[in-house]
Design a protein that fits this description.
The chain is mainly alpha-helical. The protein has 25 helices and 6 strands.
């Protein structure tokens, strides 16, 4: 089990997604309950470590689906004493980002400002972070009058210094040295393989993780910081920056403040596309949704999110994304093409014709869409290629993955519906049958659970998770000792074969 602590969103999300994709673990970024309000209350002295510990034990476990569990979380970075009490044997990664990049990003998001993003858009999650964000006066680090007199920029600088110093102090106090590690976000590209080894995660030989942006000393920004900004940065950030980024002063002359979130947005979309191409639609969906929080009207993000939703069988939600994208970018032909494909796949020929006709009225020279419209009118037999961010993925496997995610989040009804849809596509899907058995067991119906598990074994008699679940169910039933022993022997044989492979 492991936790990733830090101050920023994008880097922590990227690391979580890469670990989820490239190692045999479950690694989630800020899952519900996020504990934003509870964590800030802890820092203010209004909640105890014991209270947070109980909440963590109820909502987190060392493994999920027989895989090690990991989580990246800004809020949990504020409550390390409680995390260490709840999970004393966990590993902890302190992920630090160059303070200049962090402050620039926080400035765009409107942290400690007028509660408005620089681009005028704010998601519900961002609103929760605004309301629950740690304040220097409430936690006793800054005098109340001094805090009131600080500019929003200075408060952002304070946050970076305070939280990182807090993480370091809490880890040194509440964890053994061998349990935690400091990694600079900018260095992670070359360190990710060693990091997975340190966490004890099994992974393949090809470990690729590119974090070229934001690199220390580089930013696509136009307006230089003034003397007040550098003075605030010097006061709150420079002591730790001098230690963690000794090169920063030589590069600071290139630094400016009007930060453009494009680098984070591009990275989130790139990570999502990589996950999509690898067939991990659920993780890709999460990355695109995080990108949308940064830029709720970005056409590429809405297009990618729509494509991913379509691949997960959510055509209606996909069309909503395409429609929002076209509102802000009516000339974006990818949105039109993908929306048309989804409409045609749903036999909504008239709607597709209307979409193409409307687009051509404004852009009559688009030959590809004109050909699509001509084919539609000539045949009324729509071609149904999937909109693509990358390679195709099995819809049954995608639905099963979606169901597993819903189950992890506690949405049992949603998970059940997803697993049943898998069986409608592929009646002998061993993992979906196993998952339905788990759901039935969770609902207190061991007979139904055993029925699903036995069907799963008929498809794949050497699936370790199914064998373990069968044993767990049979052990609650009278007169099944011999059967339990037989299944346990089969499980031992499968595990020996896996270890020798």
């Amino acid at each position: 089990m492991f936790f990733i602590f830090g101050t920023g969103q994008c880097g922590m999300l990227s690391v979580a997604n890469v670990l989820l994709e490239q190692s045999r673990c479950v690694c989630l970024h800020e899952p519900e309950p996020m504990l934003i309000e509870e964590a800030s209350a802890f820092r203010y002295g209004n909640a105890s470590a014991e209270q947070i510990e109980r909440m963590l034990r109820l909502t987190r476990s060392a493994t999920q689906n027989h895989k090690p569990y990991g989580e990246s979380s800004r809020a949990l970075s504020w409550v390390i004493p409680a995390v260490s009490r709840a999970f004393p044997e966990a590993h902890y990664l302190w992920l630090v980002r160059n303070a200049i990049d962090f402050v620039n990003s926080a400035s765009l998001k409107g942290w400690y400002g007028n509660h408005e993003r620089a681009d005028g858009c704010m998601s519900a999650v961002e609103q929760r972070w605004i309301q629950g964000q740690v304040r220097g006066d409430f936690c006793g680090d800054v005098d109340a009058q001094a805090w009131a007199n600080m500019t929003a920029f200075e408060k952002r600088c304070w946050y970076w210094g305070y939280i990182n110093q807090l993480i370091e102090s809490d880890l040194r106090t509440h964890a053994r040295n061998a349990q935690f590690r400091l990694v600079r976000l900018e260095d992670l590209g070359r360190d990710i393989g060693a990091l997975m080894d340190w966490l004890g995660l099994k992974h393949g030989p090809q470990v690729m993780f590119d974090l070229d942006e934001p690199a220390a000393g580089q930013a696509d920004i136009a307006v230089s910081w003034g003397e007040p900004e550098w003075a605030a940065f010097e006061r709150w950030c420079s002591p730790l920056m001098d230690r963690l980024y000794p090169e920063w002063r030589a590069q600071s002359g290139q630094r400016t403040t009007a930060y453009d979130d494009t680098t984070e947005l591009t990275q989130l979309n790139a990570v999502g596309e990589q996950l999509y191409n690898a067939g991990d639609l659920v993780a890709a969906l999460r990355s695109f949704q995080q990108a949308l929080q940064l830029a709720p009207t970005d056409p590429q993000t809405l297009d990618n999110l729509g494509v991913c939703l379509w691949a997960l069988g959510k055509g209606g939600e996909a069309l909503q994304c395409f429609a929002r994208g076209m509102e802000h970018a009516p000339d974006n032909r990818n949105l039109v093409l993908n929306a048309g494909q989804v409409l045609l796949s749903s036999d909504r020929h008239a709607d597709a014709e209307t979409l193409y006709t409307s687009y051509l009225a404004d852009f009559p020279d688009d030959q590809e869409i004109r050909e699509r419209l001509s084919d539609l009118r000539d045949t009324f037999t729509p071609a149904r290629p999937a909109p693509s961010v990358g390679a195709d993925s099995s819809s049954a496997d995608a639905l099963n993955a979606e169901g597993e995610l819903l189950f992890q989040r506690g949405d049992i009804d949603g998970a059940t519906n997803a697993f049943q849809q898998v069986l409608n596509i592929e009646s002998g899907h061993a993992e979906a049958l196993n998952n339905l058995g788990t759901v039935a067991w969770t609902r207190g119906d061991p007979a139904a659970a055993l029925g699903y598990l036995q069907r799963s074994m008929e498809v794949n008699a050497e699936h370790p998770a199914t064998l373990r679940n069968v044993i767990a169910v049979l052990e609650t039933m009278d007169g099944q000792a011999d059967t339990v022993a037989t299944v346990r022997q089969a499980l031992d044989r499968v595990e020996r074969l896996q270890q020798s492979a």
